[in-house]
Amino acid sequence: MLKLNHKNLEVWKVSFNLVKEVYVVTKFYPKEELFGLVSQMRRAAVSITSNIAEGAARKSKIERARFYEIARASLVELDTQFEISLELNYIENKRIGNIDKLLNHTFALLSNLIKS
To answer: Does residue 4 carry a pLDDT above 70?
Structure first.
């Protein structure tokens, strides 16, 4: 594996933990959601971390910000998918506590990166 600087970014580390949590939680979703909501949630979570990595590899500030904005948009998408999951009773509020913290922390870190 490459030893690149994005792996030292707090936002990358937090979003990477979010990916792991999403995979753990969605493992218990109904089987009929495997190619629906589960797939979409996992792809959105992976997209967050991937776009942070890609943005960090860009040379210009404008390009970096663009990828961080895409990552933040995927984060908002994932948040909506968790809201849907709660509404459909696929997950309980008590199971989402750590994910909620990771979502909020990642959002704040990305927002700060975009501003700077």
So the answer is: no
CATH 1.20.1440.60 fits 7-115, yes or no: yes
Q: CA-CA distance, 97 to 92, in Å (whole number)?
A: 9
Q: What is the DSSP string of 20-55?
A: HHHHHHHTTS-GGGTTTHHHHHHHHHHHHHHHHHHH
Res 2 pLDDT > 80: no
- Region 34-50: mean pLDDT is 96
DSSP 7: G
Residues in the chain: 116
The answer to whether 30 and 90 have CB atoms below 8 angstroms apart is yes
